[in-house]
Specification:
The chain has twelve helices and nine strands. It is of the alpha/beta class. Among the domains are: 96 residues, Alpha-Beta Complex (Spore Coat Polysaccharide Biosynthesis Protein SpsA, Chain A); 75 residues, no CATH class. Strands 1, 2, 3, 4, 5, 6, 7, 8 and 9 form a nine-stranded mixed β-sheet that branches. The protein is globular, with a radius of gyration of 20 Å. The N and C termini lie far apart (53 Å).
Length: 310
């Protein structure tokens, strides 16, 4: 029996999420907007995640559970949920976050009523391990009618922490971006690419609760180079260039996205400021210095004895 595609697809990528996943899934299933599918992609969890998710899938036909035979990396697993999506709109979800009941309803209405909006999101509230409120983030990035202004704000490390990636997006536009790549902070580049295609819309209500805890990848891996291991285990102890990868990716999306000539030039000009204002140039030079040091320290007769000095 062929079923009608849902309006919304939600992609929940998870690895060893037994501690919080019930609360996350319950908050999705309790949405007032019900025309959605929930795609859970389990990245070869070794705890009780599989058992929990299969039980939910057996109880609610809107849930599609997929389990990877091996861990394919965090970003690849998130991308996979998008590739499996059938809806008009798409939203990523995390196993440790919580949604207010009207989040989908209000985000869907925002996209339905504003064809030029490519992503709708709400005020974000940080919560702790027990669900206590820590602080509210009233980010206002991506709202400008000008693509170059949106690009400048979204690429600024100090303006936001990329939690807008949990907004509701037009799936056809999201797929134009090529999704996330395997380098640290690629979710910021993805948001910038979405912002070049259209403006964002913020719902002035706290409807999304982002959990802050000690097992988060940004806590476990505080350094950009260390965090590459979250994207793929193959990056462990490898020479990586996350800042360079992001810089050239920015140039690529500016070049490929159809924009008026003056808007493209303003985006390219911003990349010069990006190097200077955010002190990226020094970090990119450090990438090279660290790579040289690691190469010099690595014994020529043993490819497996690289020094981990990130």
């Amino acid at each position: 029996m062929v079923t009608q595609p849902p309006v919304v697809s939600i992609g929940l990528a998870v690895y060893n999420g037994e501690k919080y996943i019930r609360e996350a899934v319950d908050s999705i299933l309790n949405q007032t907007f019900t025309d959605f599918e929930l795609i859970i992609s389990d990245n070869a969890s070794t705890d009780q995640t599989e058992k929990i998710c299969r039980a939910y899938a057996a109880q609610d036909e809107r849930i599609r559970y997929h389990r990877n035979p091996v861990n394919i990396g965090g970003a690849n697993n998130e991308n996979q949920t998008c590739q499996m999506a059938r809806g008009k709109y798409f939203r990523w979800a995390a196993h440790d976050d919580v949604c207010a009941p009207t989040l989908l309803e209000k985000c869907v209405a925002a996209l339905d009523e504003n064809p030029d909006v490519v992503l709708s999101y709400s005020i974000i509230v940080h919560i702790d391990e027990k669900g206590n409120h820590l602080k509210a983030l009233d980010d206002d990035v991506g709202l400008s009618p000008k693509a170059s202004t949106r690009f400048k704000a979204l690429s600024n490390f100090w303006d936001h922490n990329c939690e807008t990636t949990y907004g509701l997006m037009r799936l056809d536009v999201l797929k134009l971006t090529g999704l996330q790549r395997n380098y640290t902070d690629s979710d910021r580049t993805l948001l910038c690419h979405m912002g070049l295609y259209g403006r964002f819309l913020r719902i002035p209500e706290p409807l999304f609760y982002k959990r802050i805890h000690g097992d988060m990848s940004t806590v476990v891996y505080r350094d950009f180079r260390e965090r590459m291991a979250w994207f793929s285990g193959s990056f462990q102890n490898k020479i990586t260039f996350p800042y360079w990868m992001q810089f050239f990716h920015y140039l690529e999306i500016i070049t490929k996205t159809p924009l008026p000539f003056n808007e493209k030039m303003l985006c390219y000009l911003h990349m010069i400021r990006w190097l200077i204002d955010e002190r990226r140039w020094g970090k990119m030079i450090k990438d090279i210095i660290i790579a040289i040091r690691k190469t010099m320290r690595r014994p020529h007769n043993s490819a497996s004895s690289a020094v981990r000095d990130w």
